[in-house]
Design brief:
Chain A is of the alpha+beta class. Chain A has two helices and four strands. Chain A starts with 22 loop residues before the first strand and ends with a strand. In chain B, a hairpin with a 6-residue loop joins strand 3 and strand 4. Classes of the chains: A alpha+beta (106), B mainly alpha (743). Chains A and B meet through strand 1 of A and strand 1, helix 22, strand 2, strand 3 and helix 23 of B. Chain B: One of its GO terms (cellular component) is Cul2-RING ubiquitin ligase complex.
């Protein structure tokens, strides 16, 4: 197995003469996955996973703008779903507490 | 001259008039002044006092014309040896004369006769007998009618025999007076041309029908003669020649309304009557791809109702056979490139054939499509899912990877475009998508793509072929890459502004969960080496400043880094996975470690760690004690390790490409997706229809999912069951095979 990888840069910057460890770290490529920091993966209003855009944004091709909102009760929904919801009823659909925005994802 | 009606002596006026009429009808000399006088004579007669004399004029004229035509008939009959020419000459003269006469009688026509004529509506809907024998005709029409009655009817048999004889002569290559034959034939049309209904009746009855019969007889015997002395390919060539000639002959002699009928008759006798013979030859011609013969065959069979069916089927069979032969001759787990390229070769070979031989006839293109779909979706082992989507995805992977050196950008573009050709035939497009996205993910994460432009172009092609939804996730993966690039730049700036030196070259990819086909599998626990913790924490802080509400999960199995080996004679720079890095970094504490020590240092579960240790020991960098690896096994560094290269990589622990488990899990994931897709489709349909029969529902679900995959009926049934359990649907009470939607 000799898969090619990006090894063009030479990491040999260390010129100090301090006693070297047997292994020194030169380069690191980290892969991370981000997701909304939510308790429930699904938006209770539109039944779509919060990581995906809500249906309205999917159909209008605005996936990138579809973020998540957290209330004081720590429940989370798509921001656009919730902003439609509060027009009718200013309570969290899950716990019926009054809806106060704690933070909006970005 | 006064227009006032007055008394007129019919006899004397008619005498004058008759003289002129004789001149007119034989196209003789008539002075202009005489013409004018006679014209007003007609007027005078029609307006005469006390009684208009129009009726009498009409009858006298009719009697004269009858007499004239009868005498002409005698004259023609005298010319027995050249009856056609004589007839033609007289007809031409009479026809022109009748035209003039009609003008001369203009007043009579407009005032006297129009009143008696029927309107179109009367003719069409009035229910009169169409030809009322006694009704009055315009003079021109009257003249033609008389010609028909007193000339054509008596000559009918003679004319017909002579005409057929002439044309038969033309067929056998004798010279024929074309103008005469054409003129005579057309006289049959012209003489009845004024009629509103059934104007072609005389022509059709008297000439066309016997002519077609004669033509049919002629070509029937011609065909059997040709068939007995020629091979099929010669036969077709001759028939095409005959058809062309006969078409030309029609144009030479006949009225345009007959052209198609003649063609049809000839085709019937020479092609349709011998359909079995021709069809019998198709198979072999197709097998040997005799292009010339096939071109002829197509040309002959195309106009025949149901003539092409056998040929189309033979072509389809042949393509399928050739294709399967090509696919089967590959080794079972063949190289993807061979598969794709041999399928493409078959496809392009036959598209060329169909274009050149069959003029891209839709029916043949359809046959090609059907055959290709059958070849591409052929299962070597009917129990296993079809390999083709996987092979095609792999082929794309090979093309898009850096390793495919030596092909130019335009060639790569070309090949990828051709991949789409194959892709369109795939039944299981969703399986392809799974494999493709997996491979794309690896190419992107390990920076193996030869060209980002090519990657993007390919995704756009797939989007074009299969729609936005199909490539949605691929697009999101692509966006993540460019967003991550921006992160790296701004992170470097962030470090500079904070005057932090991480001591290593660091880069990061931040991927959006859900869009990538990784991460679903459970990641073994792992604690970062101390050397890296600082870096990770710094980045976490940076990311938290930039975004809110997001959490990051480290995908250690996809991380890799470069270590410098200082313990050997010369320094080595080795690229390896994070797991291996952590294991080796632990040796900074001590040259010999037990497996248990390493578990403590790396935080990995023992089972996973043992796997990694085994992989590393294969490279000879570390050496575990002999025997089975247990927690107490001591592992030491190989201090005399050497390698020709000072820069290399250990890629064993990188997820090797497409292990059988991966393939299996891909198929399992696809199955899951399909169930969801089908359930969604069922609910959509039922929501719209409320109540639907079982068979109709199945039918509609299949139609909706065709563009992605071909669902099995049993799978759809299972999905319906699931939905009934979930109370989306219920069986209706009165009918066992009907469902209704529960709102």
């Amino acid at each position: 197995m000799a898969d090619e990888m990006d090894v063009d840069r030479d990491g040999d910057k260390e010129t100090t003469s301090k006693p070297e460890k047997m292994f020194t770290l030169k380069k690191w490529n980290l892969v991370a996955m981000w997701s909304w920091d939510v308790e429930c993966d699904t938006c209770a209003i539109c039944r779509v996973q919060v990581m995906d855009a809500c249906l309205r944004c999917q159909s209008e091709n605005k996936q990138d703008d579809c973020v998540v909102v957290w209330g004081d009760c720590n429940h989370s929904f798509h921001n656009c779903c919730m902003s439609l919801w509060v027009k009718q009823n200013n309570r969290c659909p899950l716990c019926q507490q009054e809806w106060v925005v704690q933070r909006i994802g970005k | 001259m006064s227009l006032k009606p007055r008394r007129v002596d019919f006899e004397s006026v008619w005498e004058r008039l008759l003289e002129t009429i004789k001149g007119v009808i034989t196209c003789g000399q008539v002075a202009r002044s005489t013409w004018n006088d006679r014209f007003s004579d007609v007027y005078k007669l029609c307006t005469a006092l006390p009684e208009p004399l129009g009726d009498r004029l009409y009858l006298e004229t009719k009697a004269f014309l009858e007499l004239h035509v009868k005498s002409t008939h005698f004259k023609i009959m005298e010319n027995e040896q050249d009856l056609l020419a004589a007839y033609h000459r007289h007809w031409e003269e009479y026809c022109r004369g009748a035209g003039y006469l009609n003008q001369l009688y203009g007043y009579l026509n407009t005032t006297f006769i129009k009143k008696l004529k029927f309107t179109d509506a009367d003719l069409n809907y009035g229910g009169f007998a169409v030809e009322m024998t006694d009704h009055m005709l315009e003079i021109g029409e009257l003249a033609l009618d008389i010609w028909r009655k007193h000339m054509i009817e008596p000559l009918r048999h003679n004319l017909m025999t002579l005409l057929l004889h002439e044309i038969a002569g033309d067929r056998t290559g004798q010279s024929v007076n074309q103008a005469v034959v054409h003129g005579v034939i057309n006289s049959l049309v012209d003489v009845e041309n004024y009629k509103k209904k059934m104007a072609m009746q005389l022509y059709e009855e008297m000439f066309e029908t016997p002519f077609l019969k004669e033509t049919g007889d002629f070509y029937r015997s011609e065909a059997s003669r040709l068939k007995s002395d020629c091979t099929c390919s010669e036969y077709m060539e001759k028939v095409i020649q005959r058809l062309d000639m006969e078409n030309l002959r029609s144009c030479k002699f006949l009225h345009p309304s007959s052209y198609d009928k003649v063609m049809q008759e000839c085709q019937q006798r020479m092609v349709a009557d011998h359909l079995q013979f021709l069809h019998g030859e198709c198979h072999e011609m197709v097998q040997q791809e005799k292009r010339k013969d096939l071109t002829h065959m197509y040309q002959l069979l195309k106009p025949i109702q149901g003539g092409l069916g056998v040929l189309i089927q033979d072509i389809e069979e042949h393509i399928k056979h050739t294709g399967l032969e090509a696919v089967r001759s590959l080794k079972t787990d063949s190289v993807p490139a061979n598969f794709v390229e041999s399928v493409l070769e078959v496809h392009s070979h036959f598209s060329d054939l169909i274009q050149k031989v069959f003029g891209n006839d839709q029916q043949f293109v359809g046959a090609l499509d059907k055959a290709c779909a059958a070849v591409i979706n052929y299962k070597l082992n009917p129990k296993l899912p079809c390999k083709s989507p996987e092979l095609l995805a792999k082929y794309c992977d090979i093309l898009l990877k850096k390793s495919s050196k030596g092909i130019s950008e335009s060639e790569m573009d070309d090949r990828l475009t051709r991949c789409i050709t194959v892709f369109k035939y795939l039944d299981d497009k969703d399986i392809f998508q799974r494999f493709y996205s997996r491979m794309l993910a690896k190419r992107l994460i390990y920076a193996q793509s030869a060209s980002m432009d090519a990657e993007e172009a390919m995704i756009n092609r797939l989007k074009q072929a299969c729609g936005y939804e199909f490539t949605n996730k691929l697009h999101r993966m692509f966006t993540d890459m460019s967003v991550s690039n921006d992160h790296n730049t701004s992170f470097q700036n962030y470090l500079q502004s904070k005057r932090v030196d991480l001591g290593i070259t660091f880069s990061i990819l931040v991927l959006q969960a859900g869009a990538w086909p990784i991460g679903g599998t459970t990641v073994p626990s792992f604690s970062l080496p101390q050397e890296l913790e600082h870096t990770v924490r710094t980045f976490d802080g940076f990311y938290g400043d930039k975004f809110s509400g997001r959490k990051l999960t480290w995908m250690h199995s996809f991380c890799y880094g470069e270590l410098k080996f200082n313990h050997l004679k010369k320094p080595y720079f080795v690229t390896m996975s994070s797991y291996h890095m952590a294991i080796l970094l632990a040796f900074n504490q001590s040259e010999i470690l037990t497996v248990q020590d390493m578990v403590t240092a790396t935080g990995m579960p023992e089972k996973e760690l043992v796997k990694q240790v085994q992989a590393l020991s294969e490279t000879k960098i570390i050496m575990p004690e002999e025997g089975e690896v247990t927690p107490d096994t001591k592992v030491s560094l190989n201090m005399s390790y050497s390698n020709k290269r000072t820069k290399f990589k250990i890629s064993v622990a990188m997820p090797t490409r497409d292990t059988p488990q991966e393939v299996e899990s891909t198929h399992a994931a696809v199955d899951e997706d399909r169930k969801m897709f089908l359930q969604a489709a069922i609910v959509r349909i039922m929501k719209a229809r409320k109540v639907l029969k079982h068979n109709l529902l199945i039918q509609e679900v299949i139609t909706q999912s065709m563009s992605r995959f071909h669902p099995s009926v049993s799978m759809i049934k299972k999905c319906i069951e699931t939905l009934i359990d979930k109370q989306y649907l219920e069986r209706t009470a009165n009918s066992p095979d009907e469902y209704s939607y529960i709102a």
